[in-house]
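In this section we walk through a basic example: taking a raw amino acid sequence and producing a predicted 3D structure, encoded as discrete structure tokens. The instruction is simple. Fold the sequence below.
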Amino acid sequence: MHIAVDGDRVRIGGTGTLNTDLALTQTFGFHPSNSPFHVTNVLTTYTRIVPTEKCTATMTYDTKIPPQYGYYTGATQIAAESDCGPHACFNLEFADHALNPAGSQRICYDVLCATHMPPPPAQ
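The resulting token sequence is shown next.
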């Protein structure tokens, strides 16, 4: 998914939806079993990604473009730990703090995102 600031609005979406109205409110699901996953900020969008309470995660930020005051642009890898369960989300915090409400809870736990592994072969 991609993250972009569009004036005073936050757009989140895939390549096909980032420039549509859907991207202004679209949310995405995650499950720790599908970690790590990636998001990409467009070059003028500086963010940091913060998990909600009771969710441990490691963010690995792209630093090819130097961060500004602890906010990053480019690709971010998010590795959610197993304690990220129901009601856990990732908030997008922006260098422009006025945008933070639009980045709140846009990536949230979804059990349907779990990797369904086939049962082990019978012994």
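Looking at the output, two observations stand out. DSSP finds one helix and nine strands in the chain. Strands lie at 2-6, 9-13, 28-30, 37-41, 47-51, 57-61, 74-80, 89-94, 107-109. In the next section we compare this with other chains.
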